[in-house]
Design a protein that fits this description.
By secondary structure, the protein is mostly beta strands. About 10% of the residues lie in helices and about 60% in strands. The chain has an 8-stranded antiparallel barrel with strand order 1-2-3-4-5-6-7-8.
């Protein structure tokens, strides 16, 4: 947990596939619904012997795109807890991690494309993500990642609606400093 904070951005493209198909049958069909997201995350636990870490993540996204009856734009806000595995045999050549996240997603408007696809949707749905990330060879603080961003009704617990996006992004890891850091505690 030497650099527990990170900020990032990623771009997503809608796929009409369900979550399982999105995960296992890539790249898949896409549509002109897109979003751009900004993220902030912080590791809060690390188990070195198990090569696992846990992190909080907040996401703010802006959606735009066409659907059968026109266009729609709306914001989306996500809060999740992510579990990350980061120990692979090839890490000395290309440092890699795999993560899964669970949380909630709130859309500023009910997404029309989700309603068209599934018959109904809600603003508040479950959030699930699966991610594969690679540290950039030129800067160990930066990562490139691929993510599936999934809004879900959780088998009709929230709603029937949901959506899946194929995403690509960049993330930067850093240490926050301030008055409470170890450097300032002796003053």
């Amino acid at each position: 947990m030497d650099k527990p904070w990170s900020v990032g951005t990623y771009h997503g493209v809608f796929t009409p596939r369900n979550f399982g198909e999105s995960l296992w049958r890539m790249p898949g069909d896409t549509e002109s619904n897109r979003f751009q997201a900004l993220t902030v995350s912080r590791k809060f636990a690390h188990w070195p012997d198990k090569h696992l870490s846990a992190e909080w993540e907040g996401i703010a996204a802006y959606h735009w795109g066409k659907h059968e009856k026109g266009r729609q734009t709306y914001p989306e806000f996500v809060a999740s807890v992510n579990l990350r595995y980061h120990h692979f045999p090839w890490d000395r050549y290309l440092n890699t991690s795999v993560a899964v996240g669970e949380g909630i997603s709130y859309a500023g408007k009910p997404p029309v494309r989700e309603k068209q696809k599934d018959g109904e949707t809600r603003r508040l749905l479950n959030y699930l993500m699966v991610e594969l990330s690679f540290e950039t060879p030129f800067d160990r603080n930066r990562e490139i990642f691929y993510r599936i961003h999934h809004r879900s009704g959780v088998f009709k617990l929230f709603s029937k609606g949901g959506s899946n996006f194929y995403c690509i992004g960049l993330r930067y890891h850093f240490t926050a400093t301030g008055r409470n850091s170890a450097k300032h505690q002796g003053q």
